[in-house]
Design goal:
The chain has about 1950 residues and is an alpha+beta fold. It is about 75% helix and about 5% strand. Strands 6-7-21-8-17-11-12 form a 7-stranded mixed sheet, sandwiched between helices. Strands 4-3-2-1-5 form a 5-stranded antiparallel sheet. A 3-stranded antiparallel sheet has the order 18-19-20. Helix 6 runs antiparallel to helix 14, helix 33 packs antiparallel against helix 36 and helix 37 packs antiparallel against helix 38.
């Protein structure tokens, strides 16, 4: 089973399938490391393995197919033609999932890709529309539930290649498109077609049934398929040379689904069962499995034993048909397979008799092979000597249920008809054995088809409605064998048709994609490539027609067939001479798509005829006791054994027999018809090797299958187009390295892609740019990959150099430091050598170890204190021990007293004990009784429930029985009536029988007068001949009239077809014109959509600008807060340093610890200092940038003035245009009312049109049905005429037989006279003669009776024929008259209508030309509008640039004002300036918006951490201050100082941790600053680039802006004045600060209170800030909602575009013009809806802007309401508890009442049960009586039905014929009248529809203009809203600045 693994047990997970679906990372790495040269790596053929090997091209031109190429493989060199050499794909394409995506699509690349994937355990690979599945010969976990979940609901391109991906697309396509799906699975024997079919069915069953539980009653489809598989495999599978279980027939399985996707059933259709295998096998092969299963021991347990019933022996070699090849297969257990087959028969509901009949007929096919014939005499007459019950003929006859003698006689001497006589023909031994083989093959074939029909009956659920189906076609692939015969050409023709179907479908899909993407492409039908071969097969004198003709020709031979083929087809280019090396006797060859195949025609005629002995069939039909055999041959005409029967009447019709090719072509045509109605999917199965070894590959075998399966053909078709394609994002990401500037140059994908590809000089013939995809020709991607690889290699080398530099630099630095350290060591050593003799140095060295030694007295004191504390705790423990001992003594005394009291009161307790024992015993007894009562009660309850159920069932049964009794009574009455009728008919028949008996007696008496009767008979014969001549004359006349009628009919049909052709031409011209109109409309819509997109982009940019301004304001707030906190921290640090210096003077221990803290703080201060220095540098850079910016601003302002002038001019123009537009608006509003009225009229008209359309469709369908009925009636009339002719022929044959019988009678009488005269000598001879005479009498009597019956029937038939002929004459006259009238009508009216159509066509063309002119005029207007719009957009862009500059100036001025306020902390202001500049850069580079949000969140977290650290520092500072004050005051003991020291140590540790956290936060902030610097540099570069670009523009406009510069200078002067005032304020503030410092020094308490107040103010500020942030967030939410609305608008526009594309598709269907009107109305409705939605959104956002200010008040009111609700809820809870108590009391009362009612119910139930039992006893007896009576009546009814059926059939037939003929005549007349009226109506409607369409198009154009106007209004509203928001943000900034000033 290919790739199959059994599902694991429950509880165990399915194995991971990823390694079998996707290549691992290691594989990809190994593939990338493979050596590859894009120009020299090539494939060459390998003659040893038959595959290909990779080499290096040394010389030669691959483009020239004639040049020779030298290729080196290792140390060897080979020369090949360029056509034999193929390029190797880059390593990127190694193990490619879709082979169409390969750069070089040659055979070697395809083979290598399949081989590498197969050896990497990936058996599925795509090849365009194909999925190629290679048989792994091993079980992989690829078909588990886990894999099914992977592919469920996924598209094909989203997951790895898999068979289930194709099944999923088919299933989803069926559900989404409501179209039938078909999966075509082909391949050679052993490739895994059947297993893949099973897997597809399994997946569809899993998907359709889902994960729900299966019902117990029904069996799932998968289980039913599993039940059918053993039967079909045992009867249809056999061992071949490549596969032990090969399916030898094709099957088409259709799985039906409901509309919801639920399974509704399944059916199977079989094709091309290999019948020759039944009687012949090769040495390596075996026949069908069922033959070998019948001999297995398991069969002994079936029934009475299969071998005994089937008359089989245990030796398979007794049966020559099935023992010519192998009889045993190792991989198949025939005994187990028989068990599965038996179980399948039982599961599918086969009856025992049917099952055993099937087994017996199968055994009969086996035993037929043992029948042997011998020649008798010289005439080669075949005879079978032994035909007893134990011989093979006897067993075969017994198995067929016939007599062996009759069967052998039919084989040896079959009856054939020569003229009018039946003659027995002698058969030779060869002919007889061939006839036996033909019968055996035919029986097995019919049994197999019958089994499929039975399986189909079980697989269909009649309760479910079937909507669509997913079909699976499992059929053999293209075959090229050593010997190719009739079977091979049949299979190859099927594959030829399927390949043509694939080619057509594949490139239709491909070219549709090209058209959809907007690529210039000429449509090519690649399905026509195979048309030559198909036409050769199917044309009137083609191969199949010649084969059919030769098969019907009796004297035809294989030689004559060959000559005829060569004579008629020899000149065709695809009909070739035989070219086979394996078959030297081949007769001809055909050039197929897969190659040239040589065919041998030996035995084709016999195989096509597949002759069956009619005499044997007649024996089976007439005398077989096996019902199944009779059923199988029911459609065969057979052969009458004694006299013509009813079956014999149809012999002429079916006696010719259908040939195999005719049946095969009909079934193939039906299959192709169904496939053309389906959406196809293609699966190709491959056999990797012939020895079934996993992972092994045979290249010639695979390449042969790839050509036969059509994979290479599909790739050839792909090569003609653009097989490689990439999405624009993928293309840009991968190839941006080739030209990033070109890709960034334009937002349009096409322009940027063209720029990139033109830069690298990539020719445009090699690629095409679509709307969403870039298409490449085969091999084009390799050029791009080469260019990319060159750049990548260069960059990798650069990176390697940098990495090596980094690694070596470490070593260099290390050695440099070592050199410096050696110098320092030398210096230190020199110093030591100089100082070692100095006295002070010696003292320092000796006193250094003593520094920090512990004080022993202090340690002793500490130890004493510790000992005292331990002694105190010890004494406390001793005291508690003594106290607890005393308590124990008192408890012991109390217990003793209690025991004494108990002993004294013991007597009284004994009484209580006795009472307690009694009560407990009584309680136990009562509990036992209670348990028994409960058990009895439970039993009674169970009995009651059971009896109730029994009662209900019995009641139901009683009602059913009563209904049955009533029905039976009615039936009995009917039967009695019928019985009386039947009795009467029986009596009449008995009377007739008695009369006939009397006639027979008379005939016996009149035997002597035979001679006289013969003379009379001869006279009657002459009269009959005359009558016959008369009838023949009448028949000829009728035939002539019929021919005339047919000719008139054909003329009418031709005229009708001509009219239809003209109508279609007109419609096609109209549709072409409509398509051009729609294309122009589409272009117009695209331009409008582009304009709308640009407007929306502008609005989005303005929204982004507002967002960034809001972010800037927030950042300013956070910076200000941070600055204030940093000031506080600096003050605290200064005080902390002072405290440290004081503590160091007073205490050495504390000084050391504080020194460590000071060092760390100094390090932190150093980091901050370094940060300050960096900030200063940055400030300097920023100042430079500001100077540059100020210069740029001056220039920009100059440009701004010119732009303002331009803007004013533009505004003036716009105002004029607005005035014009207002005037237009008033006009349009007037027109609007008219249009609305017109729209209402149009809607009414459309409703009428739709109604008329529906009525037209109904009438059209009715007409089609009537036409079909007419055709059927004509066919039936032809059939009736044929039946009449057959009846006439039969009559002639019957007359001939009568004459023959009369002659035989005369001869017999003469013989009797001679015998009487000649043999009177001896009594023995007379006795013999008497016996002969008696036998002959009996025969004659029987024949005479038959003759009388036949004569009566002939008379009746003659009467019927005469009446029918008269009716036909009347009908013919009527038809002729009607035909004349129709002809006159056509000549008068149709010509006029054709002229009217031509006139209407000319009018339509004129209108079309007018509409085209109007469209061109509109397009020119549109272009003008677009130019104007582009100018406006340019002006808007310039204005937006000026606006940005103005905002930047504004922000810079605000910054300067803040700097003047906070000039004390310049570095803080500089940080703020940096953040503002960073935000401005982020404004300009909006691409990093997502990173900005992340930075903002991280920044908030770091600020939070800094706040916490600062709070801790503040607390520490206050504590240190307190400590320092206490130290300065003194008065504290050393003990207290030690405690403080310990506490300070803990706080020191906490400080260290806090400092480390602060340092980490600082590092984080530094990293952020570095990032900001990088971004600043980028922004600088962009600004410089933009400045350079605009310097040229600004140089021309400098002169005109002098006035504006003066104005700006005045503004600067005002700013300087503000600066002076700010300086004054600063000085005042400095004096205030000095005063505050002095006040702080004198009063610490007042300072603490001030700090508390400051903290409260800060909290209030934070609350205010949070409120502001919430408001800003609400604003952002509103903006997000606005963006969402814009996106919805985009989505609506996209939906609108999709609807328009759908409209285009419906217009291209070329069937109904009415639908176009409906679609335009729908689009109009959608446009109006979008307009309404946009206006509603606008109003909504305005309301939301207003409601934002009211939200705070609402929240407070809601809080109050919630408190009130909580109080109410408490009250409600109390009330509910009271109600609950009252409900509990009422429930207890109800419980008591319920118990009383239950007791009453029990009593009534007991009474009921007793009454029901009494009733049942009497009812059963009555039912049994009625059943016996019913059976008797049914037997009688069946007997009566049999008797009456024959009599009623003839009567019904005649009545039906009369009624049908009258009905047909009336219908024909009505249909003709209706057709004419409908044609007139349709023409009128078409004219009205055309007018309505034109009106609708005008209305649509007006609506589009309105839509554009509303869009422009909306954009203006959005701009106004943005301006309002900007003003609001400025107001908020000002309020914030004013709030921050008091600090």
């Amino acid at each position: 089973m290919p790739g199959h693994i059994k599902l694991t047990k429950s509880g165990q997970p399915d194995p991971d399938p990823t390694e079998f679906l996707v290549p691992s990372v290691e594989m990809k790495r190994a593939d990338q490391q493979k050596p590859y040269d894009s120009k020299k790596s090539v494939w060459i053929p390998d003659p040893k393995s038959g595959g290909y090997r990779e080499g290096c091209l040394e010389s030669g031109d691959l483009e020239d197919p004639g040049s020779k190429c030298i290729v080196s493989v290792g140390h060897e060199k080979f020369t090949h033609k360029a056509s034999e050499v193929g390029k190797v794909n880059p390593p990127k394409f190694e193990k490619c999932e879709d082979m169409v995506n390969l750069t070089f699509l040659n055979d070697a690349s395809v083979f290598w890709n399949l081989k590498t994937r197969y050896q990497a355990k990936m058996i599925h690979t795509y090849s365009g529309l194909f999925v190629v599945v290679v048989n792994p010969y091993k079980r992989y976990p690829l078909y588990t539930h886990r894999v099914a979940k992977i592919y469920l609901g996924k598209r094909r391109n989203e997951v790895a290649p898999h068979l289930w991906a194709i099944a999923e697309t088919a299933y989803r396509g069926m559900l989404n498109n409501s179209k039938n799906q078909a999966m075509l699975i082909t391949g050679e024997s052993g490739a895994g077609k059947t297993e893949n079919t099973k897997k597809v069915i399994t997946y569809l069953a899993m998907v359709a049934t889902g994960s729900g539980k299966k019902s117990e009653k029904k069996v799932s489809l998968e289980d039913q398929i599993v039940a059918t598989n053993p039967i079909l495999e045992s009867y249809g599978n056999a061992k071949t040379s490549r596969n032990d279980n090969s399916s030898r027939f094709g099957k088409f399985i259709r799985i039906h689904f409901t509309t919801s996707g639920k399974l509704a059933g399944c059916d199977i259709v079989s094709y091309l069962l290999e019948k020759s295998r039944i009687t012949e096998q090769q040495e390596v092969e075996r026949s069908y499995h069922i033959f070998y299963q019948l001999l297995q021991p398991y069969g002994d347990g079936i029934g009475g034993g299969l071998k005994a019933k089937c008359h089989l022996s245990s030796d398979i070699y007794d049966y020559t048909y099935v023992s010519q090849g192998k009889t045993k297969v190792d991989s198949i257990d025939d005994n187990e397979e028989l068990e599965f087959t038996e179980d399948a028969f039982n599961v599918l509901g086969f009856e025992e008799q049917e099952k055993f009949d099937c087994y017996m007929l199968t055994a009969a096919v086996m035993t037929f092979g043992g029948i042997e014939f011998k020649t008798k005499g010289r005439d080669d007459q075949a005879e079978c000597e032994h035909s007893g019950p134990d011989t093979f003929p006897g067993k075969a006859a017994a198995l067929c249920g016939v007599e062996s003698g009759a069967m052998i006689k039919a084989f040896c001497k079959p009856r054939i008809k020569v003229g009018t006589e039946w003659v027995t023909k002698g058969q030779s031994c060869e002919q007889a054995t061939n006839a036996v083989g033909g019968i055996a093959r035919a029986i097995f074939d019919r049994v197999f088809k019958w089994l499929i029909e039975k399986c189909n009956d079980t697989l269909i659920d009649p309760t479910l409605k079937k909507n669509n189906f997913c079909a699976v076609l499992d059929i053999a692939g293209f075959e090229i064998f050593e010997y190719n015969g009739f079977e091979q050409i049949s299979i190859n023709f099927v594959n030829e048709k399927l390949q043509q179907f694939f080619n057509h479908h594949m490139f239709v899909v491909e070219q549709e994609e090209y058209v959809k993407e907007g690529i210039d492409w000429e449509m090519v039908d690649f399905g026509m490539d195979l048309q030559a071969a198909i036409v050769m097969f199917e044309k009137p004198m083609g191969l199949w027609a010649i084969l059919e003709e030769e098969s019907l020709f009796p004297k035809a031979t294989d030689k004559s067939f060959e000559e005829k083929l060569k004579a008629s087809l020899g000149k065709l280019p695809i009909f070739l001479k035989p070219q086979s090396k394996t078959d030297k006797h081949a007769h001809f060859a055909i050039s197929h798509y897969a190659g040239i195949v040589s065919y041998n025609v030996t035995g084709w005629l016999e195989k096509n005829k597949d002759p069956v002995n009619d005499s044997v069939v007649e024996v089976f039909k007439s005398s077989s006791s096996i019902e199944l055999l009779v059923h199988l041959w029911r459609d065969h005409p057979g052969q009458p054994s004694t006299a013509p029967k009813d079956d014999g009447k149809k012999k002429k019709k079916g006696g010719g027999g259908k040939t195999v090719s005719s049946v095969y072509l009909v079934s193939l045509g039906e299959l192709m018809q169904t496939l053309h109605m389906c959406e196809p999917h293609f699966v190709r199965c491959l056999v990797p090797n012939t020895h079934k070894k996993p992972g092994d590959v045979e290249p010639p075998l695979i390449m042969h299958q790839l050509t036969c399966n059509g994979v290479l053909e599909g790739i050839r078709i792909c090569m003609r187009g653009f097989p490689n394609r990439m999405m624009y994002p993928d293309f840009k990401i991968r190839y941006a390295i080739l030209g990033s500037a070109e890709i960034a140059s334009s937002n349009d994908n096409k322009t940027s892609s063209y720029a990139l590809l033109d830069k690298i000089q990539f020719p445009r013939e090699r690629y095409r740019l679509g709307h969403t995809l870039v298409f490449f020709r085969a091999g084009a991607l390799a050029f791009l990959e080469e260019k990319r690889d060159d750049i990548v290699i260069r960059l990798v080398r650069f990176l390697q150099g940098e990495a090596l530099k980094f690694i070596r630099n470490k070593e260099f630095v290390k050695r440099r430091d070592q050199r410096d350290l050696i110098k320092i060591c030398q210096q230190q050593f020199r110093k030591y050598a100089a100082l070692r003799d100095w006295g002070w140095f010696i003292i320092i060295q000796k006193t250094r170890p003593l520094v920090g030694l512990p004080n022993p007295q202090e340690e002793l004191r500490l130890l004493e204190e510790k000992s005292r504390t331990t002694y105190d705790s010890y004494m406390e423990q001793l005291n508690t021990k003594d106290r607890l001992l005393q308590e124990n003594l008192t408890i012991v005394e109390e217990t003793k007293a209690l025991l004494k009291q108990i002993e004294s009161e013991q007597g009284n307790i004994s009484q209580y004990h006795e009472k307690q024992a009694r009560v407990s015993a009584e309680k136990a007894e009562l509990e036992m009784q209670l348990q028994e009562a409960q058990e009895t009660l439970a039993k009674k309850e169970a009995n009651r429930i059971q009896s109730a159920t029994d009662k209900k069932t019995l009641e139901a049964e009683c009602t059913v029985v009563k209904k049955d009794i009533s029905n039976l009574e009615i039936a009995i009455e009917k039967l009695e009536q019928e019985k009386s009728n039947r009795d009467f008919s029986i009596r009449s028949l008995n009377e007739e029988i008695t009369g006939r008996d009397e006639l027979i007696n008379k005939l016996n008496k009149e035997k002597k007068r035979i001679s006289e009767t013969s003379a009379k008979a001869s006279d009657d014969l002459q009269e009959a001949n005359e009558k016959l001549d008369h009838l023949i004359m009448i028949k000829n006349k009728l035939e002539n009239t019929l021919d005339d009628l047919e000719s008139s009919l054909e003329k009418e049909k031709r005229e009708r077809t001509n009219v239809e052709k003209q109508r279609r031409k007109v419609e096609s011209d109209l549709k072409v014109a409509q398509e051009t109109v729609t294309e122009l409309e589409r272009l117009q819509k695209d331009l409008e959509a582009a304009m709308v997109k640009k407007d929306k982009e502008f609005s989005i940019l303005s929204g982004k600008l507002d967002n960034e301004q809001g972010l800037i304001s927030k950042a300013k707030q956070t910076v200000g807060e941070a600055q204030g906190r940093i000031e506080v921290l600096e003050e605290e640090l200064e005080s902390e340093r002072q405290a440290r210096s004081k503590a160091e003077r007073q205490r050495s221990d504390l000084s050391r610890e504080l020194e460590n803290l000071g060092e760390r703080l100094n390090e932190a201060g150093g980091a901050t200092a370094a940060q300050i220095e960096l900030n200063k540098k940055r400030v300097a850079e920023v100042s430079k940038l500001r100077k540059d910016l100020e210069e740029c601003n001056i220039q920009h302002e100059a440009t701004m003035i010119s732009l303002k002038k331009k803007h004013q001019d533009a505004v003036a123009e716009m105002t004029e245009q607005v005035d014009q537009l207002t005037k237009m608006k008033s006009k349009i509003e007037k027109d609007k009312t008219q249009i609305f009225n017109e729209i209402a009229d149009v809607r009414v008209a459309t409703d009428e049109v739709n109604r008329s359309k529906v009525s037209c469709e109904k009438s059209y369908r009715h007409l089609i049905s009537q036409l079909n009925l007419e055709n059927k009636k004509i066919e039936k009339s032809n059939l009736i005429l044929a039946d009449f002719e057959a009846c006439k022929r039969r009559q002639t044959t019957d007359n001939a037989e009568l004459l023959q019988q009369l002659q035989e009678l005369e001869n017999a009488t003469n013989m009797m006279v001679r015998v009487n005269s000649g043999l009177s000598s001896t009594l023995e001879e007379q006795k013999r003669m008497v016996e002969d005479e008696s036998k002959e009498r009996i025969c004659l009597l029987g024949k005479y009776r038959n003759i009388e019956h036949e004569v009566d029937k002939l008379k009746e038939n003659l009467e019927e024929e005469v009446s029918s002929k008269e009716n036909f004459k009347r009908q013919l006259l009527k038809n002729q008259s009607e035909a004349d009238t129709w002809r006159n009508k056509y000549e008068v009216e149709a010509v006029a209508k054709a002229e009217e159509l031509e006139m209407s066509k000319l009018k339509v063309q004129g209108r079309l030309s007018e509409s085209q002119n109007t469209i061109e005029h509109l397009n020119s207007k549109l272009i003008q509008l677009e130019n104007a719009k582009s100018k406006l957009t340019d002006d808007l862009k310039e204005m937006s640039i000026q606006l940005d500059q103005a905002q930047i100036l504004n922000t810079s001025m605000e910054k300067k004002a803040k700097q003047f306020d906070r000039i004390v902390s310049e570095w803080k202001v500089k940080v703020g300036g940096l953040s503002v500049e960073l935000d401005v850069a982020q404004n300009e580079t909006r691409n990093a918006s997502s990173e900005l949000f992340g930075l903002k969140n991280a920044y908030d977290e770091s600020i939070h951490q800094l706040d916490e650290a600062r709070r801790e520092n503040k607390n520490l500072c206050t504590e240190i201050k307190d400590i320092m004050d206490q130290i300065s005051e003194g008065g504290r003991s050393i003990h207290e100082i030690d405690k403080i020291r310990k506490r300070l140590e803990g706080e020191k540790i906490e400080l260290e941790t806090a400092l480390s956290e602060a340092e980490g936060a600082l590092e984080h902030e530094e990293n952020k600053v570095l990032r900001a610097q990088l971004e600043l540099t980028q922004v600088k570069q962009e600004i410089e680039r933009r400045l350079e670009e605009k310097d040229l523009e600004f140089s021309l406009t400098k002169k005109t802006f002098a006035n504006e510069i003066d104005g700006m200078q005045k503004a600067l002067e005002t700013e300087t004045k503000n600066k002076v005032e700010a300086f004054r304020m600063k000085k005042r503030l400095e004096t205030d600060v000095c005063d505050l410092d002095s006040a702080l020094e004198h009063a610490n308490a007042a300072n603490i209170e001030n700090q508390k107040t400051i903290k409260g103010i800060q909290l209030q500020l934070r609350n205010v800030q949070t409120q502001l942030e919430e408001e800003s967030r609400a604003k952002e939410v509103a903006r997000d909602n606005l963006l969402v609305a814009d996106r919805k608008g985009h989505a609506n526009q996209n939906a609108l575009e999709e609807a328009r594309t759908l409209l285009d598709q419906t217009e291209r269907n070329r069937r109904l013009t009415e639908q176009e009107l409906a679609d335009t109305n729908e689009t109009l409705g959608e446009l109006t809806c979008t307009n309404q939605a946009l206006t509603a959104a606008k109003q909504k956002y305005e309301n939301e802007m207003v409601s934002l200010h009211v939200d705070l008040d609402e929240m407070t009111s809601e809080a109050r309401l919630s408190e009130e609700k909580a109080n109410r809820a408490m009250i409600d809870a109390a009330r509910l508890s009271d109600e609950l108590r009252s409900e509990q009391e009422t429930a207890s009362l109800f419980e008591r009442d319920r118990k009383l009612l239950e007791a009453q119910v029990k009593d009534s139930q007991i009474r009921l049960d007793e009454t029901e039992q009494n009733i049942l006893k009497g009812g059963r007896k009555a039912v049994s009586k009625m059943e016996t009576r019913i059976r008797e009546l049914e037997s009688e009814l069946e007997a009566e039905n049999r008797r009456s059926s024959d009599a009623q059939k003839n009567l019904r037939k005649s009545e039906r014929k009369i009624v049908e003929l009258n009905y047909r005549i009336d219908e024909d007349r009505k249909n003709h009248e209706q057709m004419q009226g409908l044609i007139d109506q349709l023409q009128g409607k078409i004219r009205s529809y055309k007018k309505q369409i034109e009106e609708a198009e005008e209305i649509a154009a007006l609506n589009l203009a309105k839509f554009r106007q509303t869009e422009s209004n909306l954009s203006e509203c959005i701009e106004q809203a943005d301006l309002n928001e900007q003003a609001l943000s400025k107001m908020k900034l000002r309020s914030r600045c004013s709030s921050l000033v008091p600090q």
